[in-house]
């Protein structure tokens, strides 16, 4: 579908962060940042949606003023919503699920991981976020080189996918969705709390088109649901440079 050229400000370009605007867990490079702010933003609305919390998104986007640089910022898949620089909505997995269920799940995860042997293991295996649990078999405190090594190891040994299948069988009635994203972890959240959750904040905003750009768009990836959603026009990207290429071609920038 061609973008609506007659009312370009009613077109939203909605970006994943990791692997789309930045290299995984890296900060956005100046070339990409300048391109988005100086070429895309003057013509179209722009937004971010990420599975990470706001602190991590702010780090990758070079500061908390990201909420003023983008029309919409959706940390944690949109469980937290910033619009025009102000927080307008917040939901919590703790309130939704209850402490008893969460502890039962977390205890099982930690017990399972205690029996998994990897080339290296570090710390922070379960990260509690506002809208999800992020589970990392290697541990989120690993170094960048260890992160990259685990990603290669996981592609061969399917550590994350195997663990997800175990959790699905152990907790069939919890109503959880499991989504692999990034290099070392996977997200666990209530059904419907994937990145499509952010789209409810865009209803009634007068948008003609929502173009979503993401790299983990295949089934099981954390961009898949929003990429496939009928409310968006999905674009699969392979890197920040590829995102720029697609934007230039799509919008004649």
Automatic annotation (TrEMBL):
<keyword id="KW-0460">Magnesium</keyword>
<feature type="binding site">
    <location>
        <position position="232"/>
    </location>
    <ligand>
        <name>Mg(2+) 2</name>
    </ligand>
</feature>
<feature type="active site" description="Nucleophile">
    <location>
        <position position="16"/>
    </location>
</feature>
<feature type="binding site">
    <location>
        <position position="18"/>
    </location>
    <ligand>
        <name>Mg(2+) 1</name>
    </ligand>
</feature>
<comment type="similarity">
    <text>Belongs to the eukaryotic PMM family.</text>
</comment>
<feature type="active site" description="Proton donor/acceptor">
    <location>
        <position position="18"/>
    </location>
</feature>
<comment type="function">
    <text>Involved in the synthesis of the GDP-mannose and dolichol-phosphate-mannose required for a number of critical mannosyl transfer reactions.</text>
</comment>
<dbReference type="GO" id="GO:0005737">
    <property type="term" value="C:cytoplasm"/>
</dbReference>
<feature type="binding site">
    <location>
        <position position="227"/>
    </location>
    <ligand>
        <name>Mg(2+) 1</name>
    </ligand>
</feature>
<comment type="subunit">
    <text>Homodimer.</text>
</comment>
<feature type="binding site">
    <location>
        <position position="129"/>
    </location>
    <ligand>
        <name>alpha-D-mannose 1-phosphate</name>
    </ligand>
</feature>
<dbReference type="InterPro" id="IPR036412">
    <property type="entry name" value="HAD-like_sf"/>
</dbReference>
<feature type="binding site">
    <location>
        <position position="25"/>
    </location>
    <ligand>
        <name>alpha-D-mannose 1-phosphate</name>
    </ligand>
</feature>
<dbReference type="Pfam" id="PF03332">
    <property type="entry name" value="PMM"/>
</dbReference>
<dbReference type="InterPro" id="IPR006379">
    <property type="entry name" value="HAD-SF_hydro_IIB"/>
</dbReference>
<keyword id="KW-0963">Cytoplasm</keyword>
<dbReference type="InterPro" id="IPR005002">
    <property type="entry name" value="PMM"/>
</dbReference>
<feature type="binding site">
    <location>
        <position position="215"/>
    </location>
    <ligand>
        <name>Mg(2+) 1</name>
    </ligand>
</feature>
<feature type="binding site">
    <location>
        <position position="229"/>
    </location>
    <ligand>
        <name>Mg(2+) 1</name>
    </ligand>
</feature>
<feature type="binding site">
    <location>
        <position position="187"/>
    </location>
    <ligand>
        <name>alpha-D-mannose 1-phosphate</name>
    </ligand>
</feature>
<protein>
    <recommendedName>
        <fullName>Phosphomannomutase</fullName>
        <ecNumber>5.4.2.8</ecNumber>
    </recommendedName>
</protein>
<dbReference type="GO" id="GO:0046872">
    <property type="term" value="F:metal ion binding"/>
</dbReference>
<keyword id="KW-0413">Isomerase</keyword>
<feature type="binding site">
    <location>
        <position position="147"/>
    </location>
    <ligand>
        <name>alpha-D-mannose 1-phosphate</name>
    </ligand>
</feature>
<dbReference type="InterPro" id="IPR043169">
    <property type="entry name" value="PMM_cap"/>
</dbReference>
<dbReference type="GO" id="GO:0004615">
    <property type="term" value="F:phosphomannomutase activity"/>
</dbReference>
<dbReference type="InterPro" id="IPR023214">
    <property type="entry name" value="HAD_sf"/>
</dbReference>
<feature type="binding site">
    <location>
        <position position="140"/>
    </location>
    <ligand>
        <name>alpha-D-mannose 1-phosphate</name>
    </ligand>
</feature>
<feature type="binding site">
    <location>
        <position position="185"/>
    </location>
    <ligand>
        <name>alpha-D-mannose 1-phosphate</name>
    </ligand>
</feature>
<comment type="pathway">
    <text>Nucleotide-sugar biosynthesis; GDP-alpha-D-mannose biosynthesis; alpha-D-mannose 1-phosphate from D-fructose 6-phosphate: step 2/2.</text>
</comment>
<feature type="binding site">
    <location>
        <position position="16"/>
    </location>
    <ligand>
        <name>Mg(2+) 1</name>
    </ligand>
</feature>
<keyword id="KW-0479">Metal-binding</keyword>
